[in-house]
Amino acid sequence: MRILITNDDGINAPGLEVLTAIAHAIAGESGEVWTVAPAFEQSGVGHCISYTHPMMIARLEPRRYAAEGSPADCVLAGIYDVLQGARPDLVLSGVNRGNNSAENALYSGTVGGAMEAALQGVPAIALSQFLGPETDDLADPFEAARHHGVAVVRALLDRGRWDGGDYRLFYNVNFPPVAAANVKGMKAVAQGYRTDTFFGVEPHISPSGRKFLWITGGPQHAPTAPGTDAAANLEGYISITPMRADLTAHDVLADLEARLA
């Protein structure tokens, strides 16, 4: 199996080392693991691509590259330049430092990398490690992902649904903010919504008198509705959410057509 991995925390992020180990275990001794990751952190860029300017790419060692672009850029670079059209069998994106549950998935470069792979017709999984008080006390905050990541990816490859149509499925996986021994299992859940958590801005004045705005986030441990991702994570479960890039609100379409008739 040929696996392409990327992330949004950057080529030197500790979560990428965890993902590399997961990918090698999945690929096996006869497989290949190729890394194309951002040269610098790209958290929060979503599914951004560098459409209006070129990006530099550098070979750091065999099968390991850094690109000055987003995770989606890295997937494109991996498929069409690094692998020279020899398409990977699987793209893994992560392991992100912090959760990409609920509304975070919409901003996530980790999810964006997996989404681009799916749009390119390649099976893809985004993986993120929820952090919290319990993981703060661990020598390895990625312990849950490190110990359970291989089993999750294998379960999805063996028993998950992989379609071949337009806007094909990809998966968003979040490991709970607990020690590996305290993980209760896996749950297939919907994307949740934190009702009181919003991004905003906080203004600051620099010594030169210029105003700068810092993006601020909300509480990450606010539970979402039962049966959704962040709720499952906070209960100690690995959340697995099937996703598509199709943004159509299909539940409204027929009603809207009737209203406009």
UniProtKB/TrEMBL annotation:
UniProt name for this protein: 5'-nucleotidase SurE
EC code: 3.1.3.5
Gene Ontology CC annotation, any one: cytoplasm
Protein family according to the UniProt entry: Belongs to the SurE nucleotidase family.
Localisation: Cytoplasm
Known catalytic reactions: a ribonucleoside 5'-phosphate + H2O = a ribonucleoside + phosphate
Organism of derivation: Phaeovulum veldkampii DSM 11550
Functional note: Nucleotidase that shows phosphatase activity on nucleoside 5'-monophosphates.
Database matches in PANTHER family: 5'-NUCLEOTIDASE SURE, PHOSPHATASE, PUTATIVE (AFU_ORTHOLOGUE AFUA_4G01070)-RELATED
Primary enzyme class: hydrolase
A Pfam family the protein falls into: SurE
Binding site for a divalent metal cation: D8, D9, S43, N96
GO molecular function: 5'-nucleotidase activity; metal ion binding; nucleotide binding
